[in-house]
Amino acid sequence: MQDCACSRSESVDYIPVMLRKSVAYLGPEGTFSHILSLRRFGKNCDLVPCASMDAIFDFLLSHPKALAIVPVENSSGGTIYDTVDLLINQGGELHIQEELALDVRPALIGHKKQAIKIIYSHFAQLQHCRNWVRDNYPDAEIRKVSSTAIAAQEAARHKNSAAISAPGTAQLYKLDILKFPILPEIRNVTHFFVLGHKPVLKLGKKSAKTAFVAALKNRCGSLHSFLGPFARHKVNLKRIVSRPVPGHPETYVFFIEIEGAQQQASVGRALRGAQKYADIQQFFGSYPVGKKYPS
Questions:
Q1: Helix or strand run (H / E) with residue 152
Q2: Is 56 helix (H, G, I), strand (E, B) or coil?
Q3: How far apart are CA 55 and CA 218, in angstroms?
Q4: I need a labelling partner for 111 at 20 to 30 A (CA). Which of 92, 201, 226, 295 fits?
């Protein structure tokens, strides 16, 4: 495997992303973010576990040559609003350098032959498994924690508790895999952004997306008018998330992700047309769509 020393180039290409030295992720070890970090960057890179989403962004902003992997959407739990809000609030200092996906199959892990009174997990996994938990453990207390690995830690400390977590965390925290709450044919995919300080300048032949934040005029039909140019130029919208502006009641911005790169003629025309109806406040760049990894 190549050495993970940081690239000295001022631009960021798709290939040099793999040469970065430090990659921050939502820890501790054993989270799905940690699994994806290992799958994408390998064990020879300096993987940095962070206790919260805020800590990931703080680390990244203070280390200009580092990268971070952050979850943005789960197919069952929906948008990860912490990621979207922190990305918006950092004021254009960071860029999305890649989008990745992890095919997640959670496990119920705990102590064999112990009655389960408490089940810990991250909210996305609790959402994904809520029907199964309700049917199989209707009397169990559900406790949300900031990561699936912390859920495993809590289950390891208390004999009458369990965690919905990555299967690999069972061995890490000396627990048993009790059951798989979700059937293999039921898909649960989490999408992640790889964040860095430089925009991606060379996309090659990879499929790409573009993300930006727009503030619309507060009047009837403004969103309809804003979206019109994308429809006319056949640019597909992949994600649109409305977020409130702190300190400004009833004021919102939209985090928007579209198919295609800014360099493409149709995307450029659509963006120029949309700017007539909104203030596009910041671009997070155009970036490749990477592969989907197994968990």
A1: helix 148-157
A2: helix
A3: 34
A4: 295
Token pair, residue 260, equals 């295609």
Which residues have CB under 8 Å from 27's CB, separation 6+?
Answer: 33, 34, 49, 50, 51, 147, 149
Query: Containing H/E element for 266?
Result: helix 265-274
Residues in the chain: 295
How far are the Cα atoms of 149, 153, 178 from residue 112, in angstroms, in the given order? 19, 16, 7
Q: Does residue 81 sit in helix, strand or coil?
A: helix
- Region label for 204, one of left (φ > 0), alpha (ψ between -120 and 50) or beta (otherwise): left
Rounded to the nearest 5°, which phi and psi values hold at 166? -70, 140
SS3 call for 89: helix
CA distances to 82, 238, 272, 283 from 262, rounded to whole Å, are: 26, 15, 11, 10
Cα Rg of the chain (Å, integer): 20
Mean pLDDT, each 10-residue run in order, the chain (295 residues): 34 43 88 89 87 94 94 85 92 91 90 93 86 93 90 93 90 91 74 94 84 88 92 95 82 92 94 90 92 82
CA-to-CA separations, 31 to 102, 127, 153, 164, in angstroms, rounded: 12, 17, 11, 11
Q: Is the peptide bond before 28 cis (omega within 30 degrees of 0)?
A: yes
